[in-house]
Amino acid sequence: MSIQPGADATFRVPREAPVAEECTARSCELSGIVTDPAFVGLVAVAGLVAFVAFAYLEDAAACCREERQRVDAERDAFEEFAERVASFEPVSAGAAVALDGPVVGVQPGAGFAGPKGGHLDEVLGSYAHTVMALPHYREEYDESAAESLAAELGADTVQTLSDERTLSPALQSALVTRSRHAAASRAELADAISVELDELSDAEVRLLEIDRARSRLHEHLDGVPKWGRTDALIDVYDRLEGLEAECDDLAKCRQGSLRDPPMTVDFGTNEGTNPTFYRYLYGPLSGTNYPVLASITELVDRLRRDRDRIAQRIAEAR
Fold first, then answer.
1. CA–CA gap between residue 96 and residue 101 (Å, rounded)
2. C-alpha torsion angle, residues 214, 215, 220, 225 (rounded to 10)
3. Closest residue by Cα to residue 184 from 109, 99, 100, 263
4. What pLDDT score does 47 carry?
5. What is the DSSP string of the chain?
6. Structure confidence by residue, pLDDT tens digits, 169-211
7. Which of 9, 34, 135, 291 is buried deepest, with most CB atoms within 10 A?
8. Closest alpha carbon to 203 in 36, 58, 1
9. Of residues 150 and 158, which shows the higher confidence score?
10. Going by C-beta distance under 8 Å and a sequence separation of 6 or more, which residues neighbour residue 220?
11. Distance between CA atoms of 214 and 306, rounded to whole angstroms?
12. What's the confidence (pLDDT) of residue 150?
């Protein structure tokens, strides 16, 4: 039996996928997100300072950094596994090691206790000491070496191991090629996460600028004499409306990113549905799967409450 060395690698998403659909319209931004209980609790408190207002962005950035660290670790592990397999001498016959034997249960970090004289034990042992030795791998996947190999490098790889029970040249080539492909795919994913981190940073900077402008308008209004207060109120009202328009533009830009993510990839889930890039990243967040839109909505809510109060003051002054 032979396997094709060029088979594609897929990513697995062990974390529970969110059930919410992708937000694709401004109405979702302004009505759907604002009904999020965590969001409602946040905006209900008046006068929050700017860095608290954008806590969703901070949580999202932390989530991205943690995931990038895991992806980088997986990339390094698959590169190391590929190097180890490439260094082995393939054989046409060797130790007969069944996949349901002692090798499958080898614990990362422990010495290999399987039969000697062949290379199959070294392959499985190397996989256990590289990919499966990652701390988050053990935490998120409860599986044998054979199950992990099938999920990461293809079920035909496991079938070939079971049938041939030795490291043939074809099997060695396939394992090395697919492992390097898995490493390269994770490097690409890490780069995509970095792009998202840059977007989060840019969004936070822009929202902080808008919120500071909002604060300066209030300071300006406080310094206006009572006899000129009505005109000042109208001016501040109009400027707050302009800041809301800036938020709307920022939301439209973000919607463009949601429709065109930095990476499109098969995440290979068992449930028959694949999460989008952003749902994959933000599934662990408890508040929202759309941190940028949620932060924009929070600021828009502030601006609208400000305008409502100013409109009331204008009406009272006339």
1. 10
2. 110
3. 263
4. 39
5. ----TTPPP-----SPPP-SPPP-SHHIIIIIGGG-HHHHHHHTSTT--HHHHTHHHHHHHHHHHHHHHHHHHHHHHHHHHHHHHHHS---SS-----TTSGGGGPPTTSPP-S-SSSSHHHHHHHHHHTTTTSHHHHHH----HHHHHHHHH-HHHHHHHHHH-S--HHHHHHHHHHHHHHHHHHHHHHHHHHHHHHHHHHHHHHHHHHHHHHHHHHHHHHTS-GGGHHHHHHHHHHHHHHHHHHHHHHHHHHHHHHHS-S-------SSS----HHHHHHTT-SS-S-HHHHHHHHHHHHHHHHHHHHHHHHHHH-
6. 888 899 999 999 999 999 999 999 999 999 999 999 999 999 9
7. 291
8. 58
9. 150
10. 232, 236
11. 9
12. 87
The Cβ-side half-sphere exposure at 223, using a 13 Å CA radius, reads 6
For the chain, give the mean pLDDT.
Answer: 76
Q: Quick check: 148 and 127 in contact, CB under 8 A?
A: yes
Distance of CA 184 to the CA centre of its chain: 17
The predicted-structure confidence for 56-102, as pLDDT tens digits, reads as follows 999 999 999 999 999 999 999 999 999 999 988 887 644 444 333 33
More confident residue, 177 or 313: 177
Higher-pLDDT residue of 114 and 196 is 196
Q: What is the pLDDT of residues 1-35, one digit of tens each?
A: 445 554 455 566 555 433 333 343 333 333 343 33
Say if residues 187 and 11 touch (Cβ distance below 8 Å).
no
CB 316 within 8 A of CB 302: no
Q: How many CB atoms lie within 10 A of CB 200?
A: 21
